[in-house]
Design a protein that fits this description.
Length: about 130
Amino acid sequence: QVKLVESGGGLVQAGASLRLSCAVSAHIGRPFTEYGAGWFRQAPGKEREFVSSISWTSENTDYIGPVKGRFTISRDNARSTVYLQMNNLKPEDTAVYFCATTFLPYSTSEKEYVFWGQGTQVTVSS
């Protein structure tokens, strides 16, 4: 069973920064370096949406439009951890943020992600 644990969420004012972390353990016979990883978010009353993804080697990354230039995804394969650096946060970024892993090199499609964390709340006040 692969376990993902997110941390780093909180309540901040608009313009602030947060860094989310996602620790991945128990890789089921596959090293962490063979999982693509991604971040998703779900705002109150809305569907969960893709935010960002990163490939096995960090060579490829992708972001949804509203976060481009503000969010940066990264991974530390030695620590089996994925990060999401979020700068210049806006009230519309308020959501529960989930990390997930996929057997694909990387993907922007939620259906391709197999293992999910429980989520961490990010609240941005205006």
